[in-house]
Design goal:
The complex is a heterodimer of chains A (210) and B (134). Chain A has 210 residues and is α/β, with parallel strands linked by helices. Chain A contains seven helices and six strands; from the N terminus they run αβαββααβαβαβα. Classes of the chains: A alpha/beta (210), B alpha+beta (134). Chains A and B meet through helix 4 and helix 5 of A and helix 2, strand 3 and strand 5 of B.
């Protein structure tokens, strides 16, 4: 029996398995609000924060993991997540952009170097994920190739995806454009910073991750 | 001046993923904008970003990438079947991929129907003004 369970588990089909623990990745372009959402989740369910946030892009330059995040939905069902906050994926990193933000040259170059490594790690970690929340800034154009590449790669790996349209508290926010860009996915609008609509996010997360 | 280099699909179809990505990236590193017939595989697009990150230096600041691809949800059944057979026989030649150096392309704005490519203004010194001698 054990042999068959192992075999089916290796084939990613295990009718005996109950999905109660999920490795959940937060992915997206830089400054979409991944770390803010990670902090919101950890504050809500663990009472502590997990990442530092900043207005300057590429604040998160290393993969950060928070184990044993137990989330309950309205029906009282519980799922345990390993929450993985990833560095933002970008196709360009220019240290001069950090200089413009007031950093010194040495610091800016170091940040750029770490940011490139962060992008590489984020891509490498895609294979480790069991469910991914793609966090997009709802004030920005969603038709960027980075977004399309991230979601395309998740689709190719059969990883369930939930799209979060973040920053709905801002005037320029437009969830409809994100829904139109990715019609095959569930999209939920939140403000991770102010906790707006996060209950909807948790409900949707249960739906996608189960 | 901006230079475009067209890459027909046949030029890359027999190359492995790593060689494809490196070929495209090497052209981009020559400060040219690649117009490639068809598109890379999804994994290759991720590889392209990964390798780009490995190559970033004060001189090479990365790439801008955009793919135009026919919207399959708007295709009827016949078009979908035709497209699938064409892909099997000829490879994924549908659509077009644009890759350019970040030092030349400021940004690419893309929506389902059009692509707008914004280039950076070249830093040329202001023209000298000469006064006619009286």
């Amino acid at each position: 029996m054990g042999f068959f369970k192992d075999l089916l588990s290796k084939l990613k089909f295990n009718p005996f398995a109950r999905k109660s623990h999920v490795k959940l990745g937060l992915y997206g372009p830089p400054n979409g609000g991944k770390s803010t959402l990670a902090n919101r989740i950890c504050q809500d369910w663990l009472g502590e924060e997990m990442s530092t946030v900043s207005h300057i892009a590429h604040e998160t330059r290393e993969i950060k993991i928070k184990e044993q995040v137990n989330i309950k939905n309205k029906k009282g069902k519980e799922l345990t997540f390993s929450l993985v906050d990833t560095p933002g994926i970008a196709t360009r990193i220019d240290y001069e952009d950090f200089l413009k933000r007031g950093m010194k040259k040495k610091q800016a170059k170091e940040r750029a170097k770490e940011a490139t490594k962060g992008v590489i790690d984020s891509i490498k970690w895609l294979d480790e994920m069991e469910c991914v929340v793609v966090v997009l800034d709802s004030t920005q154009d969603p038709y960027s190739q980075v977004n399309i590449t991230i979601i395309g790669n998740l689709q190719a790996r059969n990883i369930p995806v939930l799209i979060v349209a973040n920053k709905v508290d801002l005037k320029k926010s437009n969830i409809d454009v994100i829904k139109a860009a990715f019609p095959q996915y569930e999209v939920v609008g939140v403000s991770a910073k102010y906790g707006k609509h996060v209950e909807d996010f948790y409900e949707m997360l249960f739906k996608v991750a189960k | 001046m901006v230079t475009f280099q067209f890459i027909p699909f046949q030029e890359i179809e027999n190359l492995g993923s790593a060689k494809r990505v490196n070929k495209l990236l090497n052209i981009v590193k020559e400060n040219k904008i690649v117009l490639m017939e068809g598109r890379l595989k999804k994994q290759e697009e991720a590889d392209l970003i990964e390798i780009t990150m490995e190559e970033i230096s004060p001189k090479f600041k990365g790439i801008e990438l955009s793919v135009v691809y026919p919207n399959k949800s708007k295709q009827d059944f016949g078009q979908k079947v035709k497209g699938t057979f064409a892909n099997i026989l000829l490879g994924d030649r549908q659509g077009m991929t644009i890759i350019g150096p970040a030092s030349v392309i400021k940004r690419i704005e893309q929506n389902p129907n059009k692509i707008e490519l914004f280039t950076k203004e070249a830093k040329t010194p202001p023209a000298k003004r000469y006064r006619k001698k009286k």
